[in-house]
Amino acid sequence: MSSKAGGRGDTPPRPRVVLGVSGGIAAYKACELLRLFTESGHEVRVVPTREALRFVGAPTWAALSGNPVSAEVWDDVHEVPHVRIGQEADLVVVAPATADVLAKAAHGIAGDLLTNTLLTARCPVVFAPAMHTEMWEHPATRANVATLRERGSIVLDPAVGRLTGADTGRGRLPDPPEIFEACRRVLAGRPRDLAGRHVVVSAGGTREAIDPVRFIGNRSSGLQGYALARTAAARGAEVTLVAANVALPDPAGAKVVRVESALELREAVLAAAETADAVVMAAAVADFRPAARSQTKIKKSSAEPDPIHLVKNPDILAELGERKRAALAAAVSSARPHGSRRPPVIVGFAAETDDVLANGRAKLARKGCDLLVVNQVGDGLAFGTPDNAAVVLSAEGGSVEIPRGPKDDVADAVWNLVTPLLS
Known about the structure:
Layout: E1 16-21, H1 30-39, E2 43-48, H2 58-65, H3 81-88, E3 91-97, H4 99-107, H5 113-120, E4 125-129, H6 133-137, H7 139-150, E5 154-155, E6 159-162, E7 168-172, H8 176-187, E8 198-204, E9 208-209, E10 215-216, H9 223-234, E11 238-244, E12 254-259, H10 262-273, E13 278-281, E14 288-290, E15 310-312, H11 316-332, E16 345-352, H12 356-367, E17 371-376, E18 387-394, E19 399-406, H13 407-422
Parallel strand pairs: 1-2, 1-3, 3-4, 4-5, 8-11, 8-13, 11-12, 13-16, 16-17
Antiparallel strand pairs: 6-7, 9-10, 14-15, 17-18, 18-19
Cofactor: FMN; Mg(2+)
Keywords: Decarboxylase, Flavoprotein, FMN, Ligase, Lyase, Magnesium, Metal-binding, Multifunctional enzyme
Protein name: Coenzyme A biosynthesis bifunctional protein CoaBC
């Protein structure tokens, strides 16, 4: 990979990406990832393992990348590829990353060109694991992943889906476009200040069933919550995304828990919050639900329909805030041992149509969260749009305005305010 990759004169050099491919059945999907990199202007050097070449041959990688391909440290020795490739890279991404490669990377074993490259790289490194569920959940793999994350590597959680043969479970390679988006965020220079942190993000809008067909819902698309999950993963976090009725591809690196109702969302969020460093409640949670759900479809008749009696849903954000207050009070009274887990940073969202800041400040006082992201909705604002604007209010009385821009930028601005609170 030439260090002069790019153009001439004032043309900026193209970002240099090393695409490591290890020996799993998902190796063929790396062809799509390679195409996404090259078509977006990146200079890519593919470094497969010997096992990967049993799935996809070197001519395919060379033709798609426009660069030579080898798995051996002995090829073109005069160019010292086992050192040079890693030294010159702006990003190394391994997709798929097998349990074998994760183990070698964690323990510094360098038996081929890819593992040598991983040892010499001083740029961000992203691993996209793919393996059977039992292999991903094995204590040895979990320990290796933890080691890599502690060292600053980004290890994306695998997706849930069809595996080799008839098996289904967690271990599927995330979709190549999602891996590409995660890598694009890393290349954009996002800090890895969430490495070693577990964050929980809720997204989408809950639905409260009236009957098996109809429901009470809202207009939330989940775009802002998904942007928060993606940017957190790119900044090194372990991400649990609780998604309510969202028709979006799973963000690479996030463990996605799908829910429908407010009660289901509450259960999932509170469970995940037990080990979380931060909880961001970006989902639009229904305030009310029908007191009774018809077990059969309500038929249309000439008579006026019976009114739907509503009851309040639990206030999840307020419950999180109350749990945090109780935990802090217990710590102050020495009821909890010194050094025990700190309660998570709590971030709420407030979608308002009028008196935006006044309503936001009142909600912040009620909920007991650390930060409240207040944004105006309606008339083409926020819901379902690619951009957003907000004001972030803090429990300390401060406020930060986030100007209108892509939801990824809004997400980064929110994490910029969360990270100082983590320490």
